[in-house]
Design a protein that fits this description.
Blueprint: E1 25-27, E2 43-45, E3 60-62, E4 78-79, H1 114-120, E5 132-135, E6 138-150, E7 154-165, E8 167-170, E9 173-178, E10 186-198, E11 204-209, E12 214-218, E13 222-226, E14 230-236, E15 244-250, E16 254-259, E17 261-268, E18 274-277, E19 281-297, E20 303-321
Parallel strand pairs: 1-2, 2-3, 3-4
Antiparallel strand pairs: 5-6, 6-10, 6-13, 7-10, 8-9, 11-16, 12-15, 12-19, 13-16, 14-15, 17-20, 18-20, 19-20
């Protein structure tokens, strides 16, 4: 369903292209190959008895069919070479003399007007009051002054903005180490405008208002936050796995989280520590002490999986995987 740019090739009998398939091409289809309803720019080449549905915008049926009839409602449907004799030895296959010869334009078919198309597919726009606007398949980030964000997945920005790489902070001072690496590096956006971001595959996003509280998040889970939010970078050292990079956020302001799934929490009590597999850990809130521990070892003592044990009073923040 909804196969954008799908190109099934060499389809057998009864091959069917997906509904709503923009730019769908079914080639060398066998008898009974079907183009889906609403298939914009669909092309079916070769094969007798090929059927084009109603509303097949711009559909082109080539290479001769016995019936040679275009369906009702087929706006821009072209039946090329219908009824022409097949070349010797090529049963039911005809080379079309002209691509759009004999085009039939159906009347009364509803088609989106160009003047309505762009507004109808506009991305959700954030503003100063709502700096993080989450939409289907993406989101936008409003900048009014300064805001820290990653540019990973950015497809456009509006307004006048400049970007400067952000450095990690420790004990209130900037260090010489970058906050993030590569495309996921944190930058300080300055000016006034809006960033439009495509959500990475298998990631979900959640906007949170700190409300004067403090919280620890894994470095890769923090996508953006407002400039009034104070941050420090830290890590949990480990001898059995790479050190766990953290970001400590506190103060007033909103934060945009990038998560590998739905956010959930597990209460932590002083008498009952909580252990979370490293792959599921998002962070924690409260007076908790973290420790990297082995979760699974081989018979020879090799650590196969690691986890973080949280002791104290507070909440462990975890993510349920995207399914």
């Amino acid at each position: 369903m909804g196969g954008f740019g799908t190109r099934p090739s060499a389809g057998g009998a009864g091959a069917t292209a997906p509904s709503g398939g923009l730019g769908v091409t079914a080639q060398q289809g066998g008898p009974g190959a079907a183009v889906p309803t609403g298939g914009l720019g669909a092309t079916v080449a070769g094969g007798s008895g090929v059927a084009v549905p109603a509303d097949g915008l711009g559909a082109t049926v080539q290479a001769g069919r016995p019936s040679g009839a275009a369906p009702a409602g087929g706006l821009g449907t072209t039946d090329v070479g219908a009824g022409l004799p097949a070349p010797e030895g090529a049963h039911g296959v005809t080379t079309p003399p002209a691509l759009f010869e004999g085009a039939a334009w159906a009347r009364g078919t509803s088609v989106t007007a160009l003047s309505d198309l762009a507004p109808s597919v506009a991305l959700a726009g954030a503003d100063a009051e709502h700096p993080f606007a989450l939409g289907r398949g993406g989101f936008s980030v409003a900048v009014d002054g300064e805001l820290l964000t990653r540019l990973e997945g950015m497809v456009a920005f509006s307004g006048s903005l400049t970007f400067q790489p952000e450095m990690k902070r420790f004990r209130g001072r900037a260090t010489d180490k970058s906050f993030g690496e590569g495309a996921a590096r944190m930058v300080r956006a300055k000016g006034r405008g809006t960033l439009y971001i495509e959500a990475p595959e298998k990631r979900s996003f959640l906007a949170v208002d700190l409300g004067e509280d403090s919280v620890y998040f894994r470095d890769e889970c923090v996508f953006a936050f407002e400039e009034p939010v104070m941050f420090e970078n830290g890590r949990v050292p480990s001898d059995i796995a790479p050190d766990l990079d953290l970001v400590h956020l506190r103060g007033q302001g909103r934060v945009l989280l990038s998560l590998p799934g739905t956010l959930r929490s597990v209460p932590v009590r002083a008498e009952q520590p909580v252990t979370v597999p490293l792959t599921a850990l998002v962070g924690w809130q409260g007076n908790l002490t973290p420790r990297v521990v082995p979760l699974l070892k081989s018979p020879t003592g090799e650590v196969l999986r690691t986890a973080v044990e949280l002791g104290g009073e507070g909440f462990a923040l975890i993510a349920l995987g995207v399914r």
